[in-house]
Structures are given as structure tokens and as C-alpha cells.
Amino acid sequence: MLKLAVFDFDSTLMDGETIDFFAEELGLGKKVSAITEEAMSGRVDFFESLQLRVELLKGLDYSIVEKISHNLPYMPGAKETIAELKNRGIKVVCFSGGFRTATSYAKDILGYDADFSNALHVKNGKLTGLVGGDMMFNFSKGDMLVRLQNILGVSKEETLVCGDGANDLSMFAHAGTRVAFCARDILKKEATIIIEQKDLRELLLELK
């Protein structure tokens, strides 16, 4: 019986990559999304790619960051799926290699219990190009998942994880139910459930 469900944010609970939306404001959308793709496919170290991408955002007004973060397109079925999981007594958490401006804002809209992500450094109302937080490395999601399991008294078999990219692999290692959602091949190979349709309600059908 499941007790804990952990979802990735970008391209899982939200339809797109938050950092790519930021980069478009600076005319760097294609450049940043290309680095994102390399990282999500496992060809580039996540920590290095995150530093590189955030550095490119230096000088962006924080007011723009907030506006974009508060108007992101959530994945079809995200809200309904989280509500149903919680209705079943499952704790629902979001782990994101993205940013708190997006995940903390979405928490009450989508209904998950907690979010762990990264924070963009801001000075004088603009991004400095620096970043820090809970989800900086390839191993971060798995590391945080084990801590949560220990705190909540939840086993690997009682845990579901859902994501789309290579930085989700570390949490796949500690979950009995591993969902690859519209995912890269590197993640599909380790999954117990593969969903190819952009609708998180497909997960509920798989869990029946």
C-alpha cells in the first residue's frame, strides 16, 4: 500500500521547463533549452548544467521571474491526481531541480504537501546568476527521498516516484513504484510504469 508519492515539477506537474520560460525573456530560450535537454537526457552533469543555465539569466528582473512563475501551465490532470492520492491517505511531495518561486506558489494550487527545490539569488531586484538549494545535484532527489522515508517511517515498497529526466534516477533507486512520465529513455529503462500521454490521470488508471 502506497504511503508517499514524490513528483518532479518541470515537465511532470508543470507542462514545460520553468528555466526555459525565464530564458525566453532574455532571448536565450533555445540556448538554455538545449542545455536543459542535455541534462535531462543524462549527457551532462546536472549541477554543472544548472549553474551554467542560471548564470545566463543574470540581470533578469525578479518581478519578471515571479510573474512567469505564477503563470505556468500545469500538466493536465495534475490537480485531480494529487487530490485523489491524498484522498487515499498518501502524502504527496514535489522535488524539483527548478525553483521555489514556481514550486512553492504551485503547492496550494495543485495541493501537494511540501516542496523541495532551489532558490535563485536576487540582489537589487535582479538575478545575480547564482543559485542554491535542496536539489542541486544528480543525487539530490534520492538523498532527500531517503531522509523523508526515514522521518515518515515509509518503506521503499510504500513509495511512488514520478518524473521525466535523468536527475530523477536517484529517487527511482529508492521507490517500489517508478513512473516515467513522457520521459527520456534513460528513465524509462528503470520504470515500473511508463506513461506517454500528457495527462497525469493516466497514473490513477495504472494504480487501480
Explain this structure to me?
By secondary structure, this protein is α/β, with parallel strands linked by helices. It has a single domain, classed as HAD superfamily/HAD-like (Rossmann fold, 3-Layer(aba) Sandwich). Helix content is 42%, strand content 22%. Strands 4-3-2-1-5-6-7 form a 7-stranded mixed sheet, with helices on both faces. Strand 5, helix 8 and strand 6 form a beta-alpha-beta unit. Helix 2 runs antiparallel to helix 3 (46-55) and helix 4 runs parallel beside helix 6 (100-111). The radius of gyration is 16 Å and the shape is globular. The termini are close together. The mean pLDDT is 96.
Care to give the gist of this entry?
The protein is an alpha/beta fold and 208 residues long. It is built from 10 helices and 7 strands. The protein is 42% helix and 22% strand.
